[in-house]
TrEMBL record:
It catalyses: 4-methyl-5-(2-phosphooxyethyl)-thiazole + 4-amino-2-methyl-5-(diphosphooxymethyl)pyrimidine + H(+) = thiamine phosphate + diphosphate; 2-(2-carboxy-4-methylthiazol-5-yl)ethyl phosphate + 4-amino-2-methyl-5-(diphosphooxymethyl)pyrimidine + 2 H(+) = thiamine phosphate + CO2 + diphosphate; 2-[(2R,5Z)-2-carboxy-4-methylthiazol-5(2H)-ylidene]ethyl phosphate + 4-amino-2-methyl-5-(diphosphooxymethyl)pyrimidine + 2 H(+) = thiamine phosphate + CO2 + diphosphate. Binds 1 Mg(2+) ion per subunit. This is Thiamine-phosphate synthase. Mg(2+) binds at D76, D95. Coiled coil: none annotated. The lineage of its organism: Bacteria, Pseudomonadati, Pseudomonadota, Gammaproteobacteria, Alteromonadales. The keyword Transcription does not apply. It comes from Alkalimarinus alittae. SUPFAM superfamilies: Thiamin phosphate synthase (SSF51391). The gene is thiE. Its EC number is 2.5.1.3. It comes from the Bacteria. Belongs to the thiamine-phosphate synthase family. One of its GO terms (molecular function) is thiamine-phosphate diphosphorylase activity. Keywords: Magnesium, Metal-binding, Thiamine biosynthesis, Transferase. Its cofactor is Mg(2+).
Length: 218
C-alpha cells in the first residue's frame, strides 16, 4: 500500500481531551489555550458522551482548531470525523480497522494507531496505511491506568522499521518529557499534565503547552 504523505503537524505536543478533566463548559476554552501555547495536534476523546453531545462538542472543536490551522483528530469514531470534517481519527486495537478508515476518509486523512509496546502492531499499522503509530503507557498515568506498560526502548526497536511519526503517551509530563524525546518519539501525547483542573483554574494551559513545545527545540 502506498503510504500517505507525512503531515507536517505530526511533530510536537499532541493534546488529548478528557471529559473528567474538561466539562463541556470548559472544553473549548481549554483547547484554545493549548493551541495558543503551540499544541500541534488535538484529539477529542470522550467515551461517555451521548451521540448528540459528541457531535456538538466535535463541531465546536473542529471550528476552534480550524481557526488556528491545527488538525483535529477524533478518537474511535470515523463517522463523527466525517460529519464534522475533522482531519482524522485515532484508532485503538478494538476499533475500526485502519484500512477501513483510510478507505472512508481518503488519502489525506490523519489516521493514528495504538500499538502499545508492540513492533508487530506498528508494522501492521504501517502496512494498513496509518499516518502515525502511538506507543505507551510509559509512566504511571492518571488517564490510562489500565493500559499495559511500555518501555521507551520500543522507539529504538522501530526506528528503522517504521518510517512514520511516533507518538508517546502515558504519564508524560514536563519532568520526563525530554527523556521520551531523547529516546526517539516525534510527538508526546499529554492529557492530565496539560488539562488538569488546577491548570485551567490558574490560566496555565497555554503556558504548559508552550513549555512542552519548547522541549522539541532542544
Amino acid at each position: 500500500m502506498n503510504q500517505p504523505e507525512i503531515n507536517p503537524h505530526l511533530r510536537g505536543l499532541y493534546a488529548i481531551t478528557d471529559p473528567d478533566l474538561l466539562p463541556e463548559n470548559q472544553l473549548i476554552e481549554a483547547v484554545e489555550q493549548a493551541l495558543i501555547g503551540g499544541a500541534a495536534l488535538i484529539q477529542y476523546r470522550d467515551k461517555t458522551a451521548t451521540e448528540v453531545e459528541l457531535v456538538r462538542r466535535a463541531e465546536s472543536l473542529a471550528s476552534c482548531c480550524k481557526a488556528y490551522n491545527r488538525p483535529l483528530i477524533i478518537n474511535d469514531r470515523i463517522d463523527i470525523c466525517k460529519r464534522v470534517n475533522a482531519e482524522g481519527v485515532h484508532l485503538g486495537q478494538e476499533d475500526n480497522a485502519i484500512n477501513e478508515a483510510r478507505s472512508q476518509l481518503g488519502p489525506h486523512a490523519i489516521i493514528g494507531a495504538t500499538c502499545h509496546n508492540s513492533v508487530l502492531l506498528a508494522e501492521q499499522a504501517l502496512a494498513d496505511g496509518a499516518s502515525y503509530v502511538a506507543f505507551g503507557r510509559f509512566f504511571n498515568s492518571h488517564s490510562k491506568q489500565q493500559a499495559p506498560p511500555a518501555d521507551l526502548s520500543i522507539f529504538k526497536q522501530v526506528e528503522n522499521k517504521i518510517p512514520l511519526p511516533k507518538v508517546a503517551i502515558g504519564g508524560i509530563n514536563l519532568d520526563n518529557g525530554q527523556s521520551v524525546l531523547d529516546h526517539g518519539a516525534d510527538m508526546i501525547a499529554v492529557i492530565h499534565a496539560l488539562f488538569a483542573s488546577d491548570n485551567f483554574a490558574s490560566n496555565n494551559i497555554a503556558k504548559k503547552a508552550k513549555a512542552f513545545q519548547t522541549l522539541f527545540n532542544h
